[in-house]
Amino acid sequence: MSEQENQPLVVNSSAYPKIGLFIDGRWIYDRAPCANVINPSTEEVLGTVPKATDDDLSRALSSTARGFLAWRDTPAQERVRVIQRAVKLLRDRTSAIARVLTLEHGKHVEDAIAEIERCGNFFEWDAGQSLRAFGTIVPGEPQMQKFVIRQPIGPVVAITPWNVPMSAAARKTSAALAAGCSVILKAAEETPGTACELVRCFEEAGLPSGVLNLVFGDPEHVSSTLIASPITRLVTFTGSVRVGKHLMQLAAQAMKPVLMELGGHAPVLIADGVNAVEIGKLAAMAKVRASGQICASVSRFIVHRNSYDDFVGSCADTLNGLRVGDGFAPGVQMGPVANARRLAAAQSMVQDAKQRGARIAAGGYRIGERGYFFAPTLLADVPLDAEAMTLEPFGPVAACVSVPDLDQALSIANDMSVGLAAYAFTNSLEDAERISRGLECGVLAINHFGTPDADTPFGGVKDSGIGREGGPSSLDAYLVTKTILQSTARV
């Protein structure tokens, strides 16, 4: 990255919206701030985030209770029409919302556009599923009818992270609203503008007041208040394992189900006899997607020793040749990490690997002194006890290890408490079948770096979460089953 590329592109911050709470169909801006929104490319303050008061949270809860009663009884076809209107607004405003996302998150604007476009798929899929959420009739004896019906579970607490601010919010609101639930969305204070833009689409689409509320504030206080309330009936969260376990404890105390999509540490198994040079190029581009700050990001390359040198060399060369800079600058292929915490974490992980004897094949350093830019990094010959192999990087850092066979590759890949996404490259159908059975993960991509869209389930095993988002069962967590046994005999 040249000195010229290191200069962040100046973008008019007036493109950034005013951040507000949205409660009972009304925007609220006049609250004390709880956080500043920082542009990670320039470290400029874009705006402030209002802190919901206890009274605001109480009104949000009362509002979502009323909104649920109205939305639950709205015919599914009408709910779908409202969602379709909101999706059209979302798609029409993709470019404008993408600018907001890039300003507050830092990811390249083309990646921001792709995230928003993909979210339209979530809403369209779940809206279609809502029209097929049928009950069943169970055959019975004469004068006895047995019905099994599915009903919306109730008001939902949806807590979303900063790393995919539109995608996470869309996955949760799309399924909840399609199922007939109301939602209180607690979005991340680091990326509030994207959540506000999503809510505005539904406001202008005619969603009834109270069906979708948006709050910000102290995360622990807000989440504990909303989860403890008898009004809310489901908690859905995307974020870290540590926070997810804490929220699960709160939900258990209130006897509420949870839908958790938590962290990962995605292994990539690369076999003998493959085109390791080409895979190295693909792996480099997969690593820098959103600066490595997505839960499905590739992070542990477990490579057969016969493919190892070709893979490491190709991946490192590709990473070293990438342009890093402001997400709006033309030709840039990776933006900054989203905040100072992620920058410090990347620096610490590289330093730990060096101290343990790993080799830095690419990157490994901060770029410039302004903005949270970190060179895309590949660590080679990494000891298995290094942080890069044991902790999710959540940044543009990946580790490589060499293995003699598939047995050891699977052993290393599975030697983690998490299991979200995983990837494998092999030309052996036998090995592909063995990897499919033996790799402990919720999502496995073989011979590519793709991830599920709306039509396929996404979620993890072990500490990576509970439940699935997307696919044929996308509404299941938001619906409850009721059995009705009705006698037709006169009484």
Rg calculated over all Cα atoms: 24 Å
CATH class of the largest domain, anyone? Answer: Alpha Beta
Q: Could you please say which CATH topology of the largest domain applies here?
A: Aldehyde Dehydrogenase, Chain A, domain 1
Strand order of the largest sheet: 14-15-16-13-12-18-19
What percentage of amino acids are in beta strands? 15-25%
CATH architecture of the largest domain: 3-Layer(aba) Sandwich
Classification by helices and strands: alpha/beta
Please describe the structure with a list of short key phrases separated by commas or semicolons.
single chain; 491 residues; Aldehyde Dehydrogenase, Chain A, domain 1; Aldehyde Dehydrogenase, Chain A, domain 2; seven-stranded mixed β-sheet; six-stranded mixed β-sheet; 21% strand; globular; disordered N terminus
Could you explain the architecture of this structure?
Helix content is 38%, strand content 21%. The chain is α/β, with parallel strands linked by helices and 491 residues long. It has two domains: 13-262 and 465-482, 3-Layer(aba) Sandwich (Aldehyde Dehydrogenase, Chain A, domain 1); 266-453, Aldehyde Dehydrogenase, Chain A, domain 2 (3-Layer(aba) Sandwich). Strand 12, helix 9 and strand 13 form a beta-alpha-beta unit. Helix 2 packs antiparallel against helix 5 (165-179). It is globular, with a radius of gyration of 24 Å.
